[in-house]
Amino acid sequence: MKKCSICINDMSVRKISFNENDVCNYCENFSKIESQLNDYENLEKLFNERIDKIKGKYTYDVAVGISGGKDSVYVLYQLINKYHLKVKAFTLNNGFLSDEAKENINKIVKEFGVDHEYIEFDNELLKKFYRYSMKKWLVPCMACSYIGYATMINYTSKINAGMCIHGRSPEQMLRYFGNDTFTVLVEAGLNSINDININQLYTDLLKNIESKVDKNLMNDIKEMLFKDTKGKDFREFVSYFLYHPYNEKEIIEFLQKNTSWRVGANYNHYDCLIHNATKYIYQCAEGRPHTLPEISVLVRNKNITKQEAEEKLKSEIITEKPTDELNLLCDFVNLNPNSILLKAKIYNKVIKK
């Protein structure tokens, strides 16, 4: 299978193409912003510019989503203790939030002395949207991501916060940069806040998303999730790690030293009860771990070598079917797990090729 000469992306990655030097389009797209991503002096100015614009002018300076994972806890800590912001923390309960995550969240928000709220969703809306997502894309992640983004954007206006800050890692933000619906948010974040029309940016973004989703379902979602912005009161939605260095090991060490945050060895996505089920479905469909595009970002960023990336990819392979998680997911959306896995394998053998 054809592979990129720079990263480890291959033909299994969606919307991939290669130039005459076998460099993939994602590496080419990344190269256009690489100098900006490594200019932390300018990035700090851009972040502080955003802070200065909103600090002390709203009920809360920022709204911060917290899942109980290392990244969101670290971001919450820094915004409170380094930037001295008035923060409202919130947690999206997507129907599969683990008890361990809830325990960590409750402990941390109490320890930090921060206002916090769990955002609950209409169960039937979740089921409807997750079922639609699985029938169209085989996994619920597309629906979960959209509901998450939409809710965070709306919630920030609802509580009158100056902006919303999230803790997605660079690998998550940049894995499909240039061919991703949310590329525009990264591009906007790398510009001065004074040069951005926030309402126009998010209006266009949501129209783009709406074009990909069933019209009737989208009407239900808009009525449920956008009743507070009313299409004209958007606040900026930015990633903390677009402006600050990201080092997973250092973040964990920092939290263990400065907070009571503790989780086991499997700390990535431990908050989601069906994470391994979705990973397994992706693996069946793509013929490799779904994290390939994320690991490729690490190579582009020169965080690891190609050889280290290949070894990391191998370690991501799920060797045993996560039956319980698959059943939990499929029971929720009333779909047969064997049928979903069969469709994934057909996609891998026929449609993808």
Number of strands: 5
Strand content: 5-15%
Order of helices and strands: HHHEHEHEHHEHHHHEHHHHHH
Termini separation (Å)?
11 Å
* Whole-number count of domains: 2
Global morphology? globular
Task: Evaluate the radius of gyration.
Answer: 20 Å
What's the CATH H-level superfamily name of the largest domain? HUPs
Spans of at least 5 consecutive residues whose pLDDT stays below 50 are: none
Q: On the 0-100 scale, what is the average pLDDT?
A: 91
The number of helical elements comes to: 17
- State the secondary-structure class: alpha/beta
Gross CATH architecture of the largest domain: 3-Layer(aba) Sandwich
In what order do the strands lie side by side in the largest sheet? 3-2-1-4-5
**Biggest sheet features:** 5 strands, parallel
CATH class of the largest domain: Alpha Beta
In the CATH hierarchy, the third-tier topology of the largest domain is known as Rossmann fold
Helix share of residues?
40-55%
